Amino acid sequence: MKENKSILSTRISRRQFGKVSAAAMASSAFSFSILPSHARGRLTKPTVVGIGTGGKGRVDITHCEEAGFDVVGLVDTADATKMSSVDMENRRLKGVVETRSQYPDAKFFTDYREMFEKMGDKVDAVIVSTPDHHHFHASAMAMERGKHVYCQKPLTHGVWEARMMTKLAEKHGVKTQMGNQAHANDHMRRCVELIRAGVIGKVREAHTWTNRPIWPQGFAKPPAKEKVPAWLDWEQWIGPAPEVGYNANIAPFAWRGWWDYGTGALGDMACHIMDMAYWAVDPGAPTSVTAQQEGATKISPPINSKVVWEYPSSQYTSKRGFKYHWYDGYVNADFDRETWTLIKHSEEYNHPDPKILGGMPFQQFGSVVIGEAGKLIFNRQHGRWFIHSNNDIDGFDWPDKTIARAWDQDPYKEWYDAVTGRIEQAESHFGQAGPFTETVLLGVIAQQNPDTELEWDSEGMQFKGRSDLDKLVKRDYAKGWKIKIDS
């Protein structure tokens, strides 16, 4: 994996880091005095279009505006101007309504292809906050037009797409960021530095877990077809994916529980929770992946699962290699078709053996990195991390800060700094996020083929001896959505 050669990424002393950080903070006062690609001699804010405006999309758009972007366009398959008063009170639609109201002068589209055609020369960057199955098309179209991209996690719906996103970002030299927000937190970056400096020795394994899914998964057939609401462009919502009849139990939220549109709990949460250990160990591509699961069907991800990736030895891992373990879902739950929900019969969720945490209580999600000289226990939501050392740690040479710290620990401001030229790239740029997403999505494929060790050929982008899985590595697209990338 190529190292992000940010101006602060090389090893520097504490004194040097302080001087550079102070200078960067001072320069933030001039955050609007930049020259974006379309400005033609005018000093102005970089312009951005939000693709996906409800839920997380609303949050992403608002924070990007706060960072310094000018929101000039909105794209969503839900058109708030066509909603009834009852629709507007739907908690899943409120974000769409509020975003449209917040940016009344922004041009609105239900199809991002039309937006690119009509607004292309007026747009510097896009925020992609759609369901997973649109991430690749929206982002690839943007990058091929020279637009900077902030894309929500998982970066893509499929492995081939993640590989292509990485290549497109490098080819076009655009500034990119995946929306795994905690990647910008100081405490995550500090733990990465400590692990690489050897605070727990060479790393043998990592364990991460979540209580997700909390949305419906494990159903065997679609819900009954309903009339498409007047405010929804359902054809565009389906986009490149296989068609299914509209039902409110699919959109705007429960799409995560569909293989065709989402990637389940693993795709949703792993780009957050697995991030620190993957970043610290920098293991490259796995050689194999194996999954156990309960409740998955041909169309829906599992109610709970365990996944294990195996990697060869590398710079920060033990000579025997590295294993990454993932756990998700409640162990005593089932899908109830009548209410279209997951029914939990207990609060027990999948997690590693309690010995892994050394007696500390489990939270709903977290991670433990185990090395030859101890373990580091981490939770992305707060700055407390714990080291259980097998040796006397008093003599450990605590490393300097070697990873650039994000402005205000804010991923949107970090991306803004990249777009405006203050840094070379945000740290969760597609060169980092692409290979990481590939790893996560290999686990998604393993969930669809449980209890089988799948050997991965990263260079050939295929599972050894399993040509039947090629269609999961690179999916087919619906008519009108074929996309060719020179790979």
Keywords:
single chain; 487 residues; alpha/beta; Rossmann fold; Dihydrodipicolinate Reductase, domain 2; 2 domains; 9-stranded mixed β-sheet; 6-stranded parallel β-sheet; 14 helices; 28% helix; 17% strand; globular; disordered N terminus
Helical residue percent?
Answer: 25-40%
What Rg is obtained from the alpha carbons, in whole angstroms? 22 Å
For the record, what CATH class of the largest domain applies? Alpha Beta
**CATH fold title of the largest domain:** Dihydrodipicolinate Reductase, domain 2
Nearest-integer average pLDDT = 90
Total helical segments? 14
Briefly note the structural class of the backbone.
alpha/beta
- The termini sit apart by 17 Å
Task: Tell me the count of domains.
Answer: 2
Total strands: the figure is 17
Strand content is: 15-25%
Biggest sheet architecture:
9 strands, mixed
Strand order, biggest sheet? 15-14-13-7-10-9-8-16-17
CATH architect. name of the largest domain:
2-Layer Sandwich
Low-pLDDT sequence parts: 1-43
> In CATH, what is the homologous superfamily of the largest domain?
Dihydrodipicolinate Reductase, domain 2
Describe the global form. globular
